[in-house]
Design a protein that fits this description.
alpha/beta, TIM Barrel, Immunoglobulin-like, eleven-stranded mixed sheet, 9 helices, binds alpha-L-arabinofuranose
């Protein structure tokens, strides 16, 4: 029997809804054919946005969407993507497959999409190959309520009111594809570029510096030491790669050992957040600055026969568990993690939606976001997990992962059974519940949803017993559940 001991009196504060954010890059079929099919498409759409994808994302209450990259952001020149679509500049997407990008999806289309989704836009500005003037005029174009010449260009393109975009990334992976800068140099570049990300409305820009990848603690140290006072957030990127970057595991065909290896590597996020937080706390003990994990998720080998530059991969229950344990980690660090964006929304890496023509598939990872949505803006509460470990040698992981929150008198406990083969009895203690209900996602570790057959979905949980206010239930192997206690 595993125990989860809740303590509603012990809280780190509110779980920022933006932890449940997403990322969409001009990469492969994420934007084109994925989210955006164009207004003339036979696929059902509203102003070019794929209706089924918009509806699905609204259902999981997508809070924030990051765009246009990724590596693409540092080659993106926003003026190429405004005005009549037929006249827009065609460029080569050098990072992703060398395909021609016709810029038909630009600033207006992205912000229209965010309005349809009811989510906040998060725009990453070009620092690697863009000028300060480009950045500053992009902010003015989007946010200025004035009649400046730049704002008037927006009017001419059909939008009178400013959008008041709050979240601005100042470059992406500036240590790599965003310019190969040294931390010391980027810290100065960041200070300079962010100066011109001006406030035009009552919405103050929330400026996000490019932070480290993985365990590059030196980068975090240097940025915090030199530029902390100029930032509201700093990013962290971490991808879960099973085996090695040169020999990644297949998305749907993998061994039990690779399964546990993947979960173990995903759990490394806890150490990363803890150690980066510790460095940040030296310079920001009040935790004013948010850690923005704006790229995370599994990175597997591409599906055979697909363009290697498009990063298209299927998504199994293994991915679902990576999502659940990662979101548990973010919930447990909600005093520092203010936003996270899974990479990437549609058809790329750990996607929540896959598309093929007019068909869409909701992946197991999508269903995890559905199960976790009650955590958005809820008050995190401590959930101590008493469990043993499972798996092989260096890839041993806790059998159970969990996190909890409270909203409107109800407690949501999300709990996963990481064992691929054994069910597990679980008791929830520490809160006298009068009623308990739950929803669950479960399947074999390599089960997945595909076009024409989607066996995996969220179901009502049977057999939750209440005794002396404690809830007890059995989790099947490889499962993710959300239990509500009242
Ligand atoms: O998400 C795919 C790529 O991974 C992004 O473009 C880049 O920022 C990261 O290296």
């Amino acid at each position: 029997m595993a125990k989860i001991i809740l303590n509603p009196l012990d809280s780190l504060g509110q779980i920022n809804r933006n932890i449940y954010g997403h990322f969409s890059e001009h990469l492969g079929r994420c934007i084109y054919q994925g989210l955006y099919v164009g207004p003339d498409s036979a696929v059902e759409n509203v102003r070019g946005m794929r209706t089924a994808a918009v509806e699905a994302l609204k259902k999981i209450r997508i809070p924030v969407l990051r765009w246009p990259g990724g590596c693409f952001a540092d080659e993106y020149h926003w003026e190429d993507g405004i005005g009549p679509q037929s006249g827009r500049r065609r460029m080569v997407n050098t990072h992703w497959g060398g395909v021609v990008e016709d810029n038909s999806f630009g600033t207006h289309e992205f912000l229209d999409l965010c309005e349809m989704l009811g989510c906040e836009p998060y725009i990453t500005a070009n620092v690697g190959s863009g000028t300060i003037r480009e950045l500053s005029e992009w902010v003015e174009y989007i946010n200025s309520p004035s009649d400046s010449s730049t704002a008037q260009r927006r009017w001419a393109n059909g939008r009178r009111d400013p959008w008041s975009v709050k979240y601005w990334g100042i470059g992406n992976e500036s240590w790599g594809c965003g310019g190969n800068m040294r931390a010391e140099y980027y810290a100065d570049v960041y200070r300079r570029y962010q100066t011109y990300c001006r406030q035009y409305t009552d919405v103050r820009p929330y400026k996000i510096a490019c932070g480290p990848s993985d365990s590059n603690y030196e980068w975090m140290q240097t940025l915090m030491e030199r530029a902390a006072r100029y930032m509201d957030g700093i990013s962290l990127h971490y991808y879960t790669v099973c085996n090695t970057w040169d020999n990644k595991s297949r998305a749907t065909q993998f061994s039990t050992s690779e399964y546990y290896q993947t979960l173990k590597k995903a759990l490394f996020m806890d150490e990363l957040v803890t150690r980066h937080d510790a460095i940040m706390t030296r310079y920001d003990p009040e935790k004013r600055i948010g850690l923005v994990v704006d790229e995370w998720g599994t990175w597997h080998a591409v599906e055979p026969g697909t363009n290697p530059g498009f990063l298209y991969q299927q998504n199994t229950m293994r991915d679902a568990l990576v999502a659940s344990l990662t979101l548990d980690i973010f919930n447990r660090h909600c005093d520092r993690v203010t936003m996270a964006n899974i990479a990437q929304t549609v058809n790329v890496l750990q996607a929540v939606i896959l598309t093929e023509g007019d068909q869409i598939v909701l992946t197991p990872t999508y269903h995890v976001f559905d199960l976790y949505k009650e955590h958005q803006d809820a008050r995190q509460i401590a959930a101590y997990v008493e469990t043993d470990t499972i798996g092989e040698e260096e890839w041993r992981v806790p059998r159970i992962s969990a996190s909890a929150s409270e909203k409107d008198g109800a407690i949501t406990v999300t709990v996963s059974n990481l064992s691929e083969s054994e069910p597990q009895d679980v008791t929830l203690e520490g809160f006298r519940a009068a009623a308990a209900e739950g929803r669950i996602l479960t399947g074999k570790m390599d089960a997945f949803n595909d076009f024409g057959a989607s066996p995996l979905g969220v179901q009502a949980m049977e057999g939750i017993a209440l005794c002396d206010g404690k809830a007890t239930f059995t989790l099947p192997p490889c499962s993710v559940a959300a239990v509500t206690l009242k």
